[in-house]
Amino acid sequence: MSSSAYLRYVALGDSHTEGLGDGDDARGLRGWADRLAEQVARHSPGLHYANLAVRGRKAGQVRAEQLGPALALRPDLATVVAGVNDVLRPSCDLDEVAGHVEAMFAALTAQGATVATLMFPDVGRITPLARPIGHRVLALNARVREAADRHGVVVAETAAHAAATDPRLWSADRLHAGPLGHARIAAAVAQALGLPGSDDTWALPLPVAGTDISAWRAVGAELRWAGTFLGPWIGRRLRGRSSGDGRQAKRPALLPVAVSVGDTSPTV
């Protein structure tokens, strides 16, 4: 389908697609899916967009809670990004996780939607304390890529470039992209979809940083990160809680996308 024909875009996923790291709950979250919707709308003024993503959701929950409503909206463009919350758990069946993602690919493409997904970078290169699960992320990427091939799903190879793990693209929690990271993800998906005006500049490295960080400062930064973000995350897991408890999708209905001048989010 030509990108100019996209009229109904639905995003499924977790906190990354909800937009954490790009704005906040008080001012509103933007995120790569909102940014992508705006890019599509520039060439398809009739675009309506829904974002069903909810933070903390594992792949099986995304499938159980979001796939049915997504199919009911009959999208001609959909994005499916899920699985990171699974690989962060102590135990994870990667085949099961990929199976949930593939089931969403299958259902959406069978209904005629163009579906896109993206690859996750090696989290161990973003924060050293995450190195033990880095291999899981890459293994999940391989399974999702194979599933995408089987169903004709468009894949944005966002993990294949060194820039993907540049700390400047990530928010302070190192789990979610920051505004610049979300902008680059949106640009990568736009290029994968072949949207007019898209290119590969999203993959270019950022300018070299001017100062080196000493080993002691690096250790201190890791300890501060662990206390501020890792500790509370572990605490929620031990209590059986999730950051998404009680949360609803931020944009559950298809609404028109208003393309504003400058760096603003899609508005109703």
Automatic annotation (TrEMBL):
The record, for Pfam families, names: Lipase_GDSL_2
| UniProt xrefs under Gene3D superfamilies | SGNH hydrolase
Ranges of residues in domain SGNH hydrolase-type esterase: 11-184
**Listed PANTHER family:** GDSL-LIKE LIPASE/ACYLHYDROLASE, PUTATIVE (AFU_ORTHOLOGUE AFUA_2G00820)-RELATED, GDSL-LIKE LIPASE_ACYLHYDROLASE, PUTATIVE (AFU_ORTHOLOGUE AFUA_2G00820)-RELATED
Protein's name according to its UniProt entry: Lipolytic enzyme
Biological source species: Streptomyces viridochromogenes (strain DSM 40736 / JCM 4977 / BCRC 1201 / Tue 494)
